[in-house]
């Protein structure tokens, strides 16, 4: 947790009408110092955190020196969703998780940016839940983002997403080993049958008939349990259900049309959580109203988690977006 910083937020009004007297917002800054370079905000996913690059960075293949999001050129800010437990003592947890929404998190992130005197950002990028929060950030401040880049994500929770959130919530609240058991189910959502079948081929781990697939799934469950808190899992899972930039607003096209950012929709062809067909529908709708909308697709056997695996493909998509600012700077110089 090197260079982990904190902003104290007071009297924050939640979307449901309740007020939080105090919210600690933890964050990390990478690359160029604040105020000296264009800002990129990276939003983490369900089990992620602000440690996006470096030795233990979960997205070091994308963010870092000479990477697609080049920390030799950009200032990268990554906030922790309050309640994810990634803080000084691991106690930044939230019990009343159903009080919160992705819109609340987006508003909290803007509060953090304004506190840091950041009024405009070159890009807001995030995968899965992080991409949904990026959508909300753009809807809240439609003129303050140059590039909106949601990856393996959506502006809404489909019935399919909501159904899986319910299953996860039931497991998390009723299982004897909730984190492990919920992770077993979630891991299969994040991958594909083709990947699982191709990798394990019904093979056994040992003569005791322990199957490789069972061992792999349980290993994912126990690893998450060793580093993640139950309250954090409940909150993050719940936030997926609340994704909807049209809630208490006009229709999608009206909301999206107000967003001035270039919108880069990046999907995974085999995503079983935020399915690619929904993103293609969004793209078709948006192109009827806006010119600065772009569709990109990662092809992968890995499914939803491909944005954490297919770094070469994702880098090829992202580099032109981020290199554009460098090229414009050199031209103007």
From TrEMBL:
Residues in AB hydrolase-1 domain copies:
38-156
Q: Where are the transmembrane segments?
A: none
Write down a Pfam family by its short name: Abhydrolase_1
UniProt keywords, alphabetically: Acyltransferase, Transferase
Q: Which organism is it from?
A: Flavobacterium granuli
Q: Which InterPro entries match?
A: AB_hydrolase_1, AB_hydrolase_fold, HAT_MetX-like
Q: Which PANTHER family match?
A: HOMOSERINE O-ACETYLTRANSFERASE
Asked whether the UniProt record includes Transferase among its keywords, one would answer yes
State if 4Fe-4S is listed as a keyword. no
**EC assignment:** 2.3.1.31
A GO molecular function held by the record: homoserine O-acetyltransferase activity
The name under which this protein is listed is Homoserine O-acetyltransferase
């Amino acid at each position: 947790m090197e260079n982990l910083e904190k902003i104290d937020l007071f009297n924050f009004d939640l979307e449901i009408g309740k007020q939080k007297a105090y919210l600690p917002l933890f964050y990390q800054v990478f690359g160029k110092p604040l105020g000296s370079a264009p800002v990129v905000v990276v939003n983490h996913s369900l089990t992620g955190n602000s440690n996006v690059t470096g030795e233990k960075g979960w997205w070091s293949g994308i963010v870092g020196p000479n990477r697609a999001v080049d920390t030799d050129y950009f200032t990268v800010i990554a906030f922790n969703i309050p309640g994810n437990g990634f803080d000084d003592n691991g106690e930044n947890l939230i019990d009343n998780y159903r009080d919160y929404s992705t819109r609340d998190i987006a508003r909290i992130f803007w509060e953090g940016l304004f506190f840091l005197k950041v009024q405009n950002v070159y890009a807001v990028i995030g995968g899965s839940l992080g991409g949904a929060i990026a959508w909300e950030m753009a809807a809240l401040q439609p003129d303050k983002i140059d590039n909106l880049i949601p990856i393996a994500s959506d502006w809404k929770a489909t019935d399919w997403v909501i159904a899986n959130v319910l299953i996860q919530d039931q497991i998390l609240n009723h299982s004897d080993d909730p984190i492990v058991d919920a992770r077993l189910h979630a891991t299969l959502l994040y991958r594909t049958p083709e990947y699982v079948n191709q990798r394990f081929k019904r093979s056994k781990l040992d003569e005791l008939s322990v199957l490789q697939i069972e061992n792999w799934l349980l290993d994912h469950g126990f690893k998450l349990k060793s580093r993640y808190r139950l309250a954090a899992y409940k909150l993050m899972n719940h936030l997926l259900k609340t994704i909807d930039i049209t809630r208490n607003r006009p229709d999608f096209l009206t909301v999206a049309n107000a967003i001035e950012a270039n919108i880069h929709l990046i999907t995974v062809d085999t995503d079983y959580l935020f399915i690619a067909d929904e993103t293609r529908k969004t793209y078709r709708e948006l192109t009827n109203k806006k010119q600065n909308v772009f569709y990109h697709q990662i092809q992968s056997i890995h499914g939803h988690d491909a944005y954490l695996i297919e770094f070469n493909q994702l880098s090829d998509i992202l580099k032109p977006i981020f290199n554009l600012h460098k090229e414009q700077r050199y031209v103007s110089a």
